[in-house]
Amino acid sequence: MAICTVYTTQLNPTCSSISKPSKSHLGFHQRQVVLYKRNSTNTYRPRSSGFSRPSYSIITCAADQTVVIGLAADSGCGKSTFMRRLTSVFGGAAEPPRGGNPDSNTLISDTTTVICLDDYHSLDRTGRKEKGVTALDPRANNFDLMYEQVKTIKEGVAVEKPIYNHVTGLLDPPELIKPPKILVIEGLHPMYDERVRDLLDFSIYLDISNEVKFAWKIQRDMAERGHSLESIKASIEARKPDFDAYIDPQKQYADAVIEVLPTQLIPDDNEGKVLRVKLIMKEGVQYFSPVYLFDEGSTISWIPCGRKLTCSYPGIKFTYGPDSYYGHEVSVLEMDGQFDRLDELIYVESHLSNISTKFYGEVTQQMLKHSDFPGSNNGTGLFQTIIGLKIRDLYEQIVASRSQTPVEAKA
């Protein structure tokens, strides 16, 4: 049986009521809140009139619980772009909370709320400097509060979440986060704490190789922020020990890893413009079936037909097959090279299976819709889009499973 969580609260009996279920735009029943009066024998009965401010219990059922997705990556590794692709799959653009702190890190769409885990820093910028720790160090983060608030949101209850202000480096007053259908927690440590990790319904790690990360940071920090090459190198080197100790090991827990590497199509390439991208998918994850190319479980190497897929030097190559990753059985889909024309991506899409599309060409449509996003001409954009579609499918399966489960209320 599904277990309902009971929260006791004081309510005005003249204005409380029982809400009826309604269907969302995705066709699923939204949450139903039922109010009960607690009597002296510790059982629950429907409320009746004539009592002054009795104690009532708000029952949130498993079918209504928020689905929680974790996304881990280092700074500057594409988390923001992935979030925009993901929220687009569900419909509606993700925007900061209206009327709230203009420096809020939270993004809210029709279905999804994205929380930046930087908000759980326990030390502000000055405090970290005084203690000699980086934001990557667990000692600079409040994992107890992170766990309690993610757990509470998942159970259908709003929380007052802190805000880390990236502009001032200070901890701002908290903001109210209401339970969404899907909560995405993104940042440095979504899988670091075992308690938080156990709350995740699905987890992704964006794994950018050192060579590519360096090229990206140069492009972003020199071109957009005016940093010098020496300062960028120093920043990367200063973060590397903590990254290796606390961030990188989290990928062993991820259900899917998007790994970005230098191309193998150009000998000794060091420009980082052409990328080789792997989608590493763990086998045996509930509600998730790995994507495959041509024949599931086979080992495939495929160079698409040049008459059907326009691509300039050095071309495009796909590979697919089973492998092992940190002791787990995985399926790996790899793309090396980049597209010249996104409208021709339908040719590649037609050879992929288990991509969880709702209609033929949906992957191509999503890619064309966001052709201006970084990575839209290579495997980063393609695999981020596919994972977004897989998360939508996972969400729908979870909700359908919960709605079919009988309900048992427990205090």
UniProtKB/TrEMBL annotation:
One of its GO terms (molecular function) is ATP binding. The keyword rRNA-binding does not apply. GO terms for cellular component: chloroplast. It holds the Pfam family PRK. Its EC number is 2.7.1.19. Keywords: ATP-binding, Calvin cycle, Chloroplast, Disulfide bond, Kinase, Nucleotide-binding, Photosynthesis, Plastid, Transferase, Transit peptide. Pathway: Carbohydrate biosynthesis; Calvin cycle. One of its GO terms (biological process) is reductive pentose-phosphate cycle. InterPro entries: P-loop_NTPase, PRK, PRK/URK. Residues 68-266 form the Phosphoribulokinase/uridine kinase domain. It catalyses: D-ribulose 5-phosphate + ATP = D-ribulose 1,5-bisphosphate + ADP + H(+). It is found in: Plastid, Chloroplast. NCBIfam families: PRK07429.1 (NF005655). Belongs to the phosphoribulokinase family. This is Phosphoribulokinase.
